[in-house]
Design a protein that fits this description.
Elements lengths: L3 E2 L3 E3 L5 E3 L7 E2 L10 E4 L2 E4 L4 E2 L1 E6 L13 E6 L13 H4 L6 E2 L2 H10 L5 E6 L8 H13 L3 E6 L5 H7 L5 E5 L5 H8 L3 H12 L3 E8 L7 H14 L5 E5 L14 H12 L5 E4 L2
Parallel strand pairs: 9-11, 11-12, 12-13, 13-14, 14-15, 15-16
Antiparallel strand pairs: 1-6, 2-3, 3-4, 5-6, 7-10, 8-9
């Protein structure tokens, strides 16, 4: 068996399992994986194949997440595994999101003890990041519960593509989230990410009522950089709360999207002024 028994699935006929973790609603055949690459049908049961398999571990400034309005000046132990339920051609972490990186098993108790031991170095808790943390839901939830027992913080950096039930289960243990809003266009999400923007908006709306939320948009020339789109995005966020920080991040050619130039700084500055007409906290990234 790979990993541990997963949560959020239904056993179907003919050995199929219906995964209910994210909005893809994968119907996974025997010995196959879901779109994420880590939810596995083994013997007609769904297993979390990436449980405890850590590909990346680093003590980062909180601002690197990016979280600018959550304990600024502090550090957080950042942990990543592998797997993602999007297929973005511009992925900045494609080697672990879609690849087969080298991993080391770290039990939740050991990871939490490591985080606690770094408290004297300014660490405030754990950040689940680098790949899509919700695809490792069971491991993240186990660590979240343990880190709260230590009086420390939990942070999730996510694409926001998760069903409501698992989101609501984990939110009581989450102190902050940075959620990617990759575009405000349904077509962009459908063609570039293989997703639906409305599910991401639902996650932002739900999380913003439960914990500190900041939003990131990677601005890609010719795809999601129109003034009209950023106007619509920032206006929508402001209706949730004008206090929600928005990070407009500069694109650099990566992975399968090497045919576009980096985002001009002048474009970012123009878009930030538009966003600032609706939101109090607008930041530029990768500049």
């Amino acid at each position: 068996m790979t990993g541990i028994k997963a949560q959020y699935y239904i056993k179907k006929e003919d050995g199929l399992v219906h995964c209910l973790l994210c909005p893809h609603n994968c119907h996974i055949k025997y010995d196959k994986r879901g779109i994420c690459g880590v939810r596995i049908n083994q013997g007609g049961e769904l297993f979390a194949g990436s449980y405890g398999q850590i590909s990346s571990l680093a003590l980062d400034p909180i601002e690197k997440k990016p979280l600018y309005n959550f304990y600024p000046g502090s550090y957080i132990l950042s942990v990543g595994s592998f797997g993602c339920n999007f297929s973005c051609s511009f992925c900045q972490n494609n080697s672990i999101s879609f690849g087969n990186p080298e991993t080391v098993y770290i039990a939740p108790e050991n990871l939490v003890n490591k985080a606690y031991s770094l408290e004297r170095s300014g660490n405030i808790g754990l950040a689940y990041t680098y790949n899509e943390p919700f695809m490792g839901f069971e491991y993240v939830l186990d660590c979240c519960k343990l880190i709260k027992e230590k009086g420390m913080k939990n942070v999730i950096i996510t694409n926001g593509y998760v069903q409501e039930a698992p989101l609501l289960e984990i939110l009581p243990f989450i102190d902050a989230m940075n959620i990617d809003l990759k575009s405000f266009s349904p077509e962009f999400y459908r063609k570039v990410c293989n997703g639906n923007v409305e599910h991401v908006k639902d996650t932002i709306r739900t999380a913003a009522n439960k914990c500190h939320v900041e939003v990131t948009c990677l601005v890609i020339p010719g795809l999601n950089d129109s003034p009209e789109e950023i106007e619509a995005m920032s206006l929508w966020l402001s209706k949730l709360s004008p206090e929600i920080p928005l990070h407009l991040t500069r694109f650099f050619p990566r992975y399968r999207m090497t045919d576009r130039e980096p985002t001009p700084k002048a474009v970012l500055l123009k878009l930030s002024e538009i966003a600032k007409s609706h939101l109090k906290n607008v930041y530029l990234g990768n500049v």
